[in-house]
């Protein structure tokens, strides 16, 4: 039977999900709690990876190897990079790339992984379409975009950096896990999509906004995920 891997990085990002998963059983691997159960009658594994690309990569590989998930959906918050995004708005990943991959001294463009064919990992088109459908239904003010998710092991809180991430790397939002999930999914040929609701604008006020809006934004991202899984 198909099993869906559902990931977040922080407690706030999976709290609502865990409340709704039935017949829960927890397995601990690599120090991560993997909660199996049923959600909308479907077999799921819910987990909190922890923050950053290494945590996200290791957790994703465990989901694939040990739980044999055939789809991975990530729900959480991000800093807005596209200038038209506001706090609470949704970004659906068209692809994910690491903004902190930097081998420019060797002549590689920023974000390019040396000696590798793909550095900008495309999300599954069917999952993107399903996410768009969920957003069209639930985001009444049409406050969502499909765009590139940029990830790095940095909390961004500088407007100049944000502008660069948009102008030079064509990012829609910035966070710390999506590209690691995307890369591991690509290596294993597992379809994925990242859903992110904006908790801040990654500028000088990002720390304050992140603290204030993360719970609300995480809730919005969960609502989209909820609608998506119902339709899978
Ligand atoms: N997640 C939420 N806001 C973020 C930011 N400003 N930078 C990195 N990750 C984030």
Automatic annotation (TrEMBL):
Pathway in which the depicted protein is active: Amino-acid biosynthesis; L-methionine biosynthesis via salvage pathway; S-methyl-5-thio-alpha-D-ribose 1-phosphate from S-methyl-5'-thioadenosine (hydrolase route): step 1/2
GO biological process assignments: L-methionine salvage from methylthioadenosine; L-methionine salvage from S-adenosylmethionine; nucleoside catabolic process
Keyword Cytoplasm: no
Gene3D superfamilies per record: Nucleoside phosphorylase domain (3.40.50.1580)
Stored CDD domains: MTAN
The keyword Hydrolase appears for this protein: yes
Residues covered by the Nucleoside phosphorylase domain: 3-229
Superkingdom assignment: Bacteria
Leader peptide range in chain numbering: none
InterPro entries on file: MTA_SAH_Nsdase, Nucleoside_phosphorylase_d, Nucleoside_phosphorylase_sf
GO cellular component: cytosol
GO-annotated molecular function: adenosylhomocysteine nucleosidase activity; methylthioadenosine nucleosidase activity
Enzyme class: hydrolase
Keywords, sorted A to Z: Amino-acid biosynthesis, Glycosidase, Hydrolase, Methionine biosynthesis
EC number: 3.2.2.9
The name this protein goes by in its record: adenosylhomocysteine nucleosidase
Lineage: Bacteria, Bacillati, Bacillota, Bacilli, Bacillales
